[in-house]
Design brief:
Number of strands: 0
Shape: globular
Radius of gyration: 18 Å
Structural class: mainly alpha
Largest sheet: none
């Protein structure tokens, strides 16, 4: 078995296992020990889906197919986030967006369009983060910021600029967490810090 074939099988296995762990709480008749650890299984699902996305973006030759599938996944994730659907599906939106953003950023051929779209989505995320009128939108800001910074950090042509922007977000997040004067700024410090760290790690290793 070649290394490429092995990675393909691992990617498929991680994808299937990740989806199973992600939606296991919606399956009736399971032992109590499984349903009681649904949160832990969702955390494992995020890791498995991320591994599947990374391997899927490197091991399969048909990059356009992976980009198309992950693009559809991003649309589905956004739909799960904002449409009136069952809670088990809404709870999987972040996992889908995160994993699909990795795969899409690695395989898309329209990098300029992808980077522009990711930047616009990040702007929407920042607007949602700081608007005080609809708290429910503020709760979804991180779901937009992390996938968008992942795609932007991979697809944007200027790696150094991505790193500098991410470092700026890290610094801004630390300042927000350390200052006691503006409560909204303080409350969003963690989101800024996590977004910056994610963007820097992705840009530094692309």
């Amino acid at each position: 078995m070649t290394k490429e074939r092995r990675n393909q099988l691992i990617a498929i296995g991680c994808l299937v296992a990740g989806i199973a762990f992600l939606y296991i709480e919606g399956i009736s008749g399971l032992p109590a020990i499984i349903t009681q650890n649904a949160v832990l299984l969702k955390g494992i699902a995020l890791v498995l889906l991320s591994i599947a996305a990374i391997l899927g973006g490197t091991a399969f030759e048909n990059k356009q197919r992976i980009a198309l599938i992950s693009g559809v996944g991003l649309a589905i994730g956004l739909g799960f986030l904002y449409l009136p659907i069952p809670s088990v599906l809404r709870g999987s939106a972040f996992h889908i967006l995160f994993a699909c953003a990795i795969a899409f950023g690695m395989t898309t051929t329209v990098r300029r369009i992808a980077a522009t779209g990711a930047a616009l989505l990040a702007c929407i995320g920042f607007v949602f983060l700081y608007q005080p009128f609809f708290p429910s939108l503020g709760g979804t800001a991180l779901h937009l910021l992390l996938p968008s910074i992942i795609v932007f950090s991979i697809a944007f042509s200027q790696k150094t600029l991505c790193e500098r922007f991410s470092i700026g977000l890290i610094a801004l997040g630390l300042i927000a967490l350390c200052q006691p004067f503006f409560m909204l700024f303080y409350q969003t410090g963690f989101q800024l810090l996590l977004t910056g760290l994610t963007g820097f790690i992705v840009a530094a290793h692309r």
